[in-house]
Amino acid sequence: MNMSTGHLRGVLALLAVGPLLAACGGASDDDDAGTGPRVLASFYPLEYVAGRVAGSHAEVSALTGAGVEPHDLELDIQRIADVEEADVVVFSRGFQPAVDDAVDQAGTEHVVDAAEVADLVPPDEDSHNHEDDHEGDDHADEPLDPHFWLDPTRLAMVAAAVEEQLAAADPAHADDYAANLAGLQDDLEKLDTEAERGLADCARDKVVVSHDAFGYYADRYGLEVEAINGLSPDAEPSPAHLRELSDLIDEEGITTVFSERLATAELADTLAGDLGLDTGVLDPIEGLGDETSAEDYLSLMGANLAAIREANDCR
Question: Do both 45 and 80 map to the same domain?
């Protein structure tokens, strides 16, 4: 086949730039598909925050799977490798010891420790960790309450720290991360305002729950929370505590005992049954389960607010 000199030069030119065009097109496609920094969160609320801030620019996953109670998470070799390979790790020191160990060993450059950012405090002395009767007055060794995310203002602080680390790991998309953070913080501010207004005028201000996870929520919105179990949902209450709780329920006219989805409701149901009370669900939002797989942090917090308003006859 004969080919003119000009035509041949054109073909050679296309062949030369073809790989460059393909490379440019590939980078764009990858970006649209959401590739970028690998972000690993230790459990659901942190995964939610990281996903909202990252948007389409990062791959976000969680160490704690759906339906898994996060307090006692153990990591296999693959999950430890996931921590080592992540570009950004978001965790809360003291909540999941296996994750703490993996993060310490990995030496990841971009790390958010939510426990440090959210300014954790010990459980309120009126809402003790009920594994025992708390004999004595020395609470110096009392653990910090890890459930900061039930106060949306504290979660907003963690979100800002996630944005800072994402921007450092991926400066090309720093403006987008900042915009995503602003949108999330707007949603959290609205959530906070709704709870303040919704719980401002109630017949009762006491709530009985199965798991001592609502201390920050109570402090934020003027409630008093009494828990059947301690900071860990599998902690066993003492008989003395159960008697005190029964007396409190009777004295305060409490109508409802709340359980949760990811832990057994046996003790809450038994207490409610013995006293002729209603049962309900308050979700500590430590993870999503089968019943909440279509929900997210915002909708679950809204459901918690509605449940408390109904139980406490709020106006």
Answer: yes
Q: Is 57 helix (H, G, I), strand (E, B) or coil?
A: coil
In 134-223 the beta strands, taken as DSSP E runs, fall at 206-209
Q: Can you give the pLDDT at residue 222?
A: 97
How many angstroms separate the CA atoms of 207 and 255, rounded? 9
Residues 98-116 have pLDDT tens digits of 999 999 999 999 999 999 9
Please list the rounded mean pLDDT of every run of 10 residues in the chain (315 residues): 44 39 37 72 98 97 92 93 98 96 97 97 58 42 89 98 98 98 98 98 95 94 91 74 89 92 83 90 91 90 98 96
Closest CA to 274 of 245, 300, 302: 245
Residue 291: CA count within 13 A, CB half-sphere: 8
Distances from the Cα of 182 to the Cα of 21, 37, 91, 100, 154, angstroms: 36, 20, 21, 29, 15
Counting other chains too, the contacts that 246-254 makes at CB distance below 8 Å and 24 or more residues apart are 246/271, 246/274, 246/275, 248/206, 248/208, 249/208, 249/275, 249/277, 250/275, 252/204, 252/206, 253/204, 254/204, 254/206, 254/207, 254/208, 254/311
Residue 57 in tokens:
């620019």
Q: Is the dihedral of CA 51, 215, 66, 310 positive or negative?
A: negative
Residue 63 and residue 157 share a domain: yes
Length of the chain: 315
Q: What is the CATH number of the domain that holds 84?
A: 3.40.50.1980
Answer yes or no: is 1 within a domain: no
